[in-house]
Specification:
The protein has 338 residues and is an alpha/beta fold. It has twelve helices and ten strands. Bound molecules: pyridoxal-5'-phosphate (PLP).
């Protein structure tokens, strides 16, 4: 594997830190570490920035002048894409799906949406359940009709080119762990559109690192999530010239902690947000990273004593779209005893 063979635009602050979380680790009975991909830098950071480095590389190679992408209203992927476009003089056309059904003013106007507008993206919002891939093609055709050269980025930036960003992250984690003499038993991450999980699995497999990855789902049921991740991990390994490196057993998703659905917050999510914030000063996000932490908290007894790396995929900007949901649950804050 030789990532320098793929066109790439530098967007992220790399490497992101791999840090211990001793206080939360003690509470959970784990040797817990955190990989700070919430600190990739662009537009406040997050996991999509690594994918966008390779996607923009490909876009420039193809002569594109406008990026087209889609996501849920509070999409972190869309926010990072809008920022990457702005930083490189590209146009950005966004289609947002009203997936959660929320019409709360903070959800539809604050957080990531406010930032999308700040970065100058054009935004069109469509109903929940719309065929978003068809919308992307329609938008691209419209732009072509205007003489533009659109580059379509799928939801979450999750295709084999985008997943190269998480191949690179896998390499980075193993290098950092080796430098620290840290033998990792398990990597835990949120898994959604599958590029993060699939890229990690592909990268670890191609390296022969033998580190299991546990993905906590945020939307799809287990069978569908695992099929999606496996397909993308295989395609990504093939892009790296190692089509047989990924085996079925390398892909494990746990989708038991989704709760009511994508982007919907329950008490377990709030407890995870509060615990990470008040134990180690870490800001998780309500849609992805706090759901993964909710799963890790629930299953921690199974992993007791293990060295676990929690991949923080970012998303804190989305918190400001959830003020009306979270504020009541947080009350007036904690007590002086904490
Ligand atoms: C998109 C996203 C994820 C999920 O990553 P995928 O590559 O889509 O599976 C996790 N966390 C955050 C904060 C995200 O924005």
């Amino acid at each position: 594997m030789h990532l320098a063979r793929f066109p790439r635009v530098r967007l992220a602050h790399l490497p992101t830190p791999l840090e211990p979380l001793p206080r939360l680790g003690e509470k959970l009975g784990l040797d817990l570490w955190i990989k700070r991909d919430d600190a990739t830098g662009l537009a406040g950071g997050g996991n999509k920035t690594r994918k966008l480095e390779f996607l923009l590389g490909d876009a420039f190679e193809k002569g594109a002048d406008v990026l087209v992408t889609q996501g849920a209203v509070q999409s972190n992927h869309v926010r990072q894409t809008a920022a990457a476009a702005a930083a490189h003089g590209l146009g950005c056309a966004i289609i947002l799906e009203a997936r959660t059904g929320s019409t709360a003013p903070d959800y539809v106007g604050n957080g990531n949406v406010l930032l999308d507008k700040l970065f100058g993206a054009s935004i069109r919002t469509v109903d929940a359940g719309t065929d978003m891939n068809a919308e992307l093609e329609t938008e691209a055709a419209r732009l072509r009709g205007e003489g533009r050269r659109p580059y379509v980025i799928p939801g979450g930036g999750s295709n084999p080119i985008g997943a190269l960003g998480y191949v690179d992250c896998a390499r980075e984690i193993v290098t950092q762990a080796d430098d620290l003499d840290l033998a990792i038993d398990r990597i835990v991450t949120a898994t959604g559109s599958a590029g993060t999980h699939g890229g990690l699995v592909a990268g670890l497999a191609v390296m022969g690192a033998d580190v299991p990855v546990l993905g906590f789902g945020v939307r799809a049921p287990k069978a569908r999530q695992e099929a999606m991740v496996l397909k993308l991990a295989r395609e990504t390994a093939a892009l790296l010239g190692r089509p047989d490196a990924v085996t079925d057993d390398m892909v494990v998703a746990d989708c038991d902690y989704v709760g009511e659905g994508y982007g919907l917050v329950d008490q377990g999510v709030i407890d995870a947000l509060v615990l990470a914030a008040r134990t180690d000063g870490i800001v998780l996000d309500p849609v992805y990273s706090a759901k993964a932490m909710k799963g890790l908290i629930a299953r921690t007894a199974e992993f007791r004593g293990e060295t676990v790396v929690f991949l923080h995929t970012g998303g804190a900007q989305g918190l400001f779209g959830y003020q009306s949901v979270l504020e009541g649950a947080l009350g007036h804050g904690g007590t002086v005893e904490n």
